[in-house]
Amino acid sequence: MSLIKFIMQNKHIKSISALAGCIFGIIIAHPYVMLVYFLTNPTAPMGQGFNLDLAKTFRDTFSYEMLPMALSFSFFCSLIGFLLGLLYEKKQKFSALKAEMEKKEAGVEAMEKLLSILSHFILNSTMVITSGIRQLRRSDCSASIGDILDKIEKQAEKNEEIITHMKSHNYLYHIHDADKSISRILELTRSLEKCISK
Q: Among 54, 72, 99, which residue terminates a domain?
């Protein structure tokens, strides 16, 4: 089991599969086909070594006369092994690509949520400041002016706090690393939600 796991995790899977196929063709496939041929053709010529002695039949399978057939089995089994290794390698690459795409999709979703929160906050902030400026232009009372200025100052402080949060997380510089970027974006999003809800 551990040998199979090692083969599957090895980066030279095609070469290992081809070698395994070659060995399988010589040691197992060729003797098995010869045995089947003997059992299904009892009238085979005795000069070729096919008789009731299975041990001798097995030895004759690896004789010099059987070398061309053994090489043929070796070649075709190694080719099959190579193709299976290639198929497995492509499957692994596809799985890795699929996992990477899922990470990127998660990153995009996290970024969309972050941008949605920021755009909503910026819109609210702009409305508060714009409303305050309009009230200042219409106001004649110094007391109401002070209240409006306090409201604008409070909103400006919150804006500064949001920007400080974004700078402290520094998430834009880590966007190339899928795992870190997603966790940083989510962390920043939660932090901004707490900050905005104050």
A: 99
Among 84, 99, 114, residue at a domain's last position: 99
Mean pLDDT of 125-154: 72
pTM equals 0.49
Distance between CA atoms of 89 and 36, rounded to whole angstroms? 34
Q: Which residues contact 138 (CB under 8 A, 6 or more apart)?
A: none
Q: Nearest CA to 32 among 68, 63, 70, 65?
A: 70
pLDDT tens for each residue of 27-77: 888 888 877 777 777 665 544 444 456 667 677 777 777 788 888 888 888
Residues present in the chain in total: 198
Q: Residue 150: is its pLDDT beyond 70?
A: yes
Rounded-to-integer distance, Cα 105 and Cα 139, Å: 50
Give the C-alpha separation, 106 to 125, whole Å. Answer: 28
Gap between the Cα atoms of 118 and 133, Å rounded: 22
Give the range of the structural domain holding residue 117, as residue numbers without chain letter: 100-196
